[in-house]
Amino acid sequence: MKYRTDPSLLSEVRKYGRFDTNACLQCGSCTVSCDLTNNTDSFPRKTLRYTLIGLREQLKSRLEPWLCYYCGDCSTTCPRQTEPGEAMMTLRRYLTAQYDWTGLSAKIYKSKFWEIGSLLFFGIIVLLLVVYYHLFYAELEYEVFISEPMPMEHMFGLIGTFTTVVFLIPLFFLLINSLRMYWLTMRSGDNLKIPFHLYYTEAKTFLLHAITQKRFRDCAVRNRWIKHLILAAGCGLMVFIKFFFLEWFQTDSIYPVYHPQRWLGYFAAGALIYTTVEILISRIKKREEIHKFSNANDLIFPIMLLLTAVSGLAVHIFRYLGLELTTHFTYAIHLAIAVPMLIIEIPFGKWSHMIYRPLAIYFKAVKEKALQVEINKEPVLENV
Ligand code: SF4
Ligand code: SF4
Q: Which of 214, 212, 194 is nearest to 368 (CA)?
C-alpha cells in the first residue's frame, strides 16, 4: 500500500485545539501509561505520529482517538510536556469535522463566534415562531397576547409537531455523519473482508457502550465515570420524556407529587444541574490535568445544558405559584435555549461524542471478529 504524506495536515489539526507535539522524542511512555491501550489499539503515540508525518487518510481512518477517554495520565507521564492527552482531544474535534458533511462542525470548533452565533440564530428563530404563532396563526390581538396567555393545552398539536421536528433534525445529521464515520474507518485502508452478519451480531456492543459509556470506568478516576453516567442519564431522560410524554409538560395543570411528570422531571433537572455546575467549576478552576487547557468554548455546552435545566425548573415553579403569564414567557425562553442546543450541539458539537465513542468500540469489535474469521480460514500447515 502506498502512503502519501501531506505537510499541511499538522497545521490544519492545530486549528482545532492544542497539538504541541514537536518536542516528542517517541519514547512511548505515554502509550505505556495508558490503561486503555493494548496490542491492537496502540495510542496515543502512534496516532500522534500519523499527524506529525502528515498521513491524512490514515488518520481519518483511525478509531483510536475515540477509544481515549481523556484521563490525562499520558500527559502527566510525558517527559517532554507535549500534552498527548490534549492532542488526542484535538484529534477528536478534527475527526468530528471530517465526518460532518455540512462543514458546521469545523466552523464551530475553530471559532467560538460561529458556535455562539449559530446558537443565538436558532434561539431568535424559536422566539419569532412563538410570536408568529400567537399573533398570526392563532389570530390573537397583541394586547391579549401579552396579557392573557393561551392555555398550553391549546398548543399541544403544534408544539408536538415542532418537538418531533426538533428531535428529528439532529438525528438525521447524526445518522449521515455516523455513516461517513463508517465509510472512513471501515471501508478504507486494510483489505479485511467483513462478513455482513457481524454488524448485527456485534450490535449489542454498541448498545451497551452507548447506554453505559462503561469504558470510562477503566480510565483513571472512577467517579468521573459515575458523574458522566449521571449527566448522560439526565440528558437521556430529558430527551425521552419530552419526546414521548410531551403532554405531561405542555399543560397548565399541576400534577400530584407521585406522578412521573414530577419525579422524573426533578431527577432530570437535578442530574443536569449537579453535573453541569460541577463541570463548570472544574473547567474554570483548571486544577485537574484534563481541564488545564479548558477555554471559553468548553464552557458553552455545559452552560446551555444548565440553562435548559434551570429554565425548565423555573417553568414548573411559576406554574406551581399560579403565575400564568410568567410561566408562558419562561417556557418560550426555555424553548429558545433547548432547541438550538439540540440542533447544534448534538450532531455538530460536543454531544456527538456520545455516539462516536460507542460506534468506534462497535466498529473495533466487528473488525476484531472479522480478523478472527480470516485467521480461522487460513489453511493449517502440516508439519513436514
Ligand atoms: S488521556 Fe488517558 S485514555 Fe487518553 S491516551 Fe492518555 S492515558 Fe490513554
Ligand atoms: S511520552 Fe511524550 S515524548 Fe514520549 S512518545 Fe509520548 S508524547 Fe512523545
A: 194
Rounded Cα distance between 374 and 372, Å, is 5
Return d(Cα 158, Cα 212) in angstroms, integer. Answer: 34
Q: Identify which of 80, 86, 88 to mutate to test ligand 2's pocket (most ligand atoms within 8 A of the CB).
A: 80
Report phi then psi at 234, rounded to 5: -60, -45
Three-class SS string for 156-172? Answer: HHHHHHHHHHHHHHHHH
- To test the pocket of ligand 2, the residue of 82, 83, 88, 289 to mutate (highest count of ligand atoms within 8 Å of its CB) is 82
pTM of the model: 0.87
Q: 29 alpha carbon to ligand 2 midpoint, in Å?
A: 6
pLDDT band, very low/low/confident/very high, at 147 (cuts 50, 70, 90):
low
Q: Residue 88: nearest ligand to its CA?
A: 1
- Between CA 276 and CA 282 the distance in angstroms is 10
Report whether residue 89 contacts ligand 1, using a CB cutoff of 6 Å: no
Q: Is the pLDDT of residue 190 over 60?
A: yes
* Residues 329/35, Cβ–Cβ less than 8 Å: no
Confidence at residue 358, expressed as pLDDT on a 0 to 100 scale? 95
For residue 27 and ligand 2, the question of a CB distance below 6 A is answered with yes
Spatial CA neighbour of 87 closest among 123, 46, 122: 46
Ligand 1 atom with minimal separation from the 72 CA: 1
Give the span between the Cα atoms of 99 and 65, in whole angstroms: 14
Number of H helices, E strands in the chain: 20, 0
- Measured CA to CA in angstroms, residue 90 lies from 144, 237, 293, 340 at distances of 52, 29, 11, 24
Q: Is the C-beta atom of 68 inside 6 A of ligand 1?
A: yes
